[in-house]
Amino acid sequence: MIKLASLSKHFGKTVVLDEIDLTIEKGEIVVIIGPSGTGKSTLLRCINFLEQPTAGTITVGDLTVDVKQASRADILSLRRQTAFVFQNYALFANKTALQNIAERLLVVDKWPKEKAYEKAREILGKIGLAEKADAYPASMSGGQQQRVAIGRAMAAGAEVILFDEPTSSLDPEWVEEVLGLMKQLAAERQTMLVVTHEMSFARDVADRVIFVDGGHIVEQGPPSDIFQNPKDPRTKDFLKKIIATSEAAL
């Protein structure tokens, strides 16, 4: 279970997140949508202190941290219970796919090398890249690199996987293979918090969709409610623009 209470983030006088309250149950898939620059990615980055939150508390599993008093040990504990999938993959360029997935197990969890590599090979099989074990990122497509990044997150065994627009850097032909892997994780009830512009993914996979604007949660609910019957004018306007953009691209 993930719980954010009055979570805020300020950059100087600019309020990026304004007292966000959010609870995510174990096994829930929550998708965050909204205009660019409204705090969606910052919210994810604050959960595991890639950005230092300004105020509030974060609970992941049995751990609750007051962000103003968070110690280094608190931050490390939060990071052990979360896994982050970045827009730009963030793989180690000098390590193979196998080594990238095993890295967390070796360095953070202190697994023996043989055991860590065995687990990494198992995950490569699950993500459909068993034959890429010895490949370096530069020799893989963007879609394959992002699948390795997701495999690395899977290896962490984290309470929740945080996805920050995982398909935004991909060419169109690679998007579906990454979304397919995320759908596979969703079917296994891996707790996921996903920031995305892929409305079809949000509609088809999410248990709950959250619309964020101006650092606030404006509206949230099941995908059927948000997409078919949004209540707030800002949500309606955003979805109208998204639909118009999609139709224009056809």
Attribute tags:
9 helices, 250 residues, alpha/beta, 6-stranded mixed beta sheet, 10 strands, single chain, 4-stranded antiparallel beta sheet
Description:
The protein has 250 residues and is α/β, with parallel strands linked by helices. The protein is built from nine helices and ten strands. Helix content is 41%, strand content 24%. The longest helix is centred in the last third of the chain and has 17 residues, at 233-249.
Quick overview of this protein structure:
With 250 residues, the protein is α/β, with parallel strands linked by helices.
What layout of secondary structure does this protein have?
Blueprint: E1 2-11, E2 14-24, E3 29-33, H1 40-47, E4 55-60, E5 63-66, H2 72-80, E6 82-85, H3 97-107, H4 113-126, H5 142-155, E7 160-164, H6 172-187, E8 192-195, H7 199-205, E9 208-213, E10 216-221, H8 223-228, H9 233-249
Parallel strand pairs: 3-8, 3-9, 6-7, 7-8
Antiparallel strand pairs: 1-2, 1-4, 4-5, 9-10
Helix pairs in contact: 3-4, 3-5, 4-5, 5-6
Distance between the termini: 40 Å
**Largest sheet: spatial strand order:** 6-7-8-3-9-10
Largest sheet, in brief, is:
6 strands, mixed
Shape: globular
Provide the β-strand percentage band: 15-25%
- Number of alpha- plus pi-helical segments: 9
Helical fraction equals 40-55%
Please count the beta strands (DSSP E, at least 2 residues each). Answer: 10
Instruction: Give the low-pLDDT segments.
Output: none
String of helices and strands:
EEEHEEHEHHHEHEHEEHH
Structural class: alpha/beta
Mean pLDDT comes to 93
> Which radius of gyration do the C-alpha atoms yield?
18 Å
